[in-house]
Design a protein that fits this description.
Strand 17 and strand 18 form a beta hairpin. The relative contact order is 0.08. It contains 6 helices and 20 strands. Helix content is about 15%, strand content about 30%. One of its GO terms (molecular function) is double-stranded DNA binding.
């Protein structure tokens, strides 16, 4: 079959270009995209309706009557629909002073963005404040800004959280655990480095030094995108992981400290790796206290790891 030229335009009303066919009568898609970047096929109008041409192995086949019977224009992939914007939640404000009313709460939080709702909960009998209230922003970005910090309202520190969430909902996903830190890495070093990825709202470096830190971002997506990565900061290789209060126990190289669950606040230890004993193989013990020359019998209480 001899080579023929096909009239193809970008849009139905645009000026066409003649494109050559192959010897078998098909038109290579690469020939089309060389002239019309992003095109995914061809279509034509027949009897007032649009028809698409068959595409097999990057070859566009002619219609039943042949190429000369119609004029063709490009088909392009439809743009993917934008992901829906996150919706704002009702936020609970904890620790409000008894004297603080709706006007004071609205005045304070309006600096973060437009407010749709402000409510201070009061006792039905006395009318006195219960020390907490609710707010709702119009924009999700304003909600993120409010969740990313503590708030001084009428001389008292207050916390903003998503209701029914022990850790403040999105707040837990905005914090990352930075392991393998050295004493040379300061909070300013971490803030400057991670600030290149997104706005940093808080950096926590334990004192005394414990070889890890916590970094909190304004945007939870930034925090989650860094998890599982190694980063070099001032010549120090650190590892980023999710910041959770406790984890399933892992290898001994990952152990940072264990506290006894004895009904009181857990104690956190920072023992060097060589002080850790082998895992107990009986009684379900998670770990034993480090060996010392005069150590007592191993404690049989369960342990909780804190990172």
């Amino acid at each position: 079959m001899s080579i023929e030229y096909v009239l193809v335009s970008e849009g139905e009303q645009d000026e066409p270009i003649e494109l050559p066919t192959e010897e078998d009568g098909s038109l290579l898609l690469s020939t089309v995209t060389a002239q019309f970047a992003g095109a995914s096929g061809l279509k034509y109008r027949a009897g007032g309706r649009l028809r698409g041409l068959r595409l097999v192995e990057d070859r566009v086949s002619p219609p039943p009557g042949g190429w000369a019977t119609h004029r063709y224009f490009c088909a392009f992939p439809r743009a993917s629909a934008p992901s829906p914007r996150p919706r704002c939640s009702d936020l609970i404000v904890l620790g409000l002073p008894w004297k603080t009313g709706e006007d004071a709460v609205r005045e304070y939080f309006s600096s973060f963005g437009e407010l749709l709702m402000v409510q201070v909960k009061r006792d039905a009998k006395t009318g006195l404040s219960k020390g907490f209230g609710f707010i709702k922003f119009a924009e999700y970005e304003a909600q993120l800004r409010a969740l990313g910090r503590r708030h001084m309202i009428d001389g008292r520190w207050c916390d903003v959280r998503i209701p029914n969430s022990k850790d403040g909902g999105a707040a837990a996903h905005r914090k990352v655990f930075v392991g393998r830190c050295t004493e040379n890495l300061t909070a300013d070093d971490l803030r400057e480095y991670f600030g290149a990825f997104g706005q940093v709202t808080d950096v926590f470096v334990p004192r005394p030094f414990r070889a890890f830190s916590f970094v909190t971002f304004l945007d939870p997506e930034v925090a989650q995108s860094l998890c599982g990565q190694d980063h070099i900061i001032k010549g120090v290789s650190v590892n980023i992981s999710t910041a959770s209060p406790k984890r399933e126990r892992g290898s001994r190289s990952q152990l940072l400290g264990w506290g006894l669950l004895d009904g009181a606040a857990p104690r956190v230890y920072s023992w060097p790796p060589e002080a850790w004993p082998a895992h107990s193989q009986h009684s379900g013990h998670a770990a034993l206290a480090p060996h010392t020359p005069h150590s007592a019998a191993p404690d049989t209480k369960p342990y909780l790891k804190y990172e």
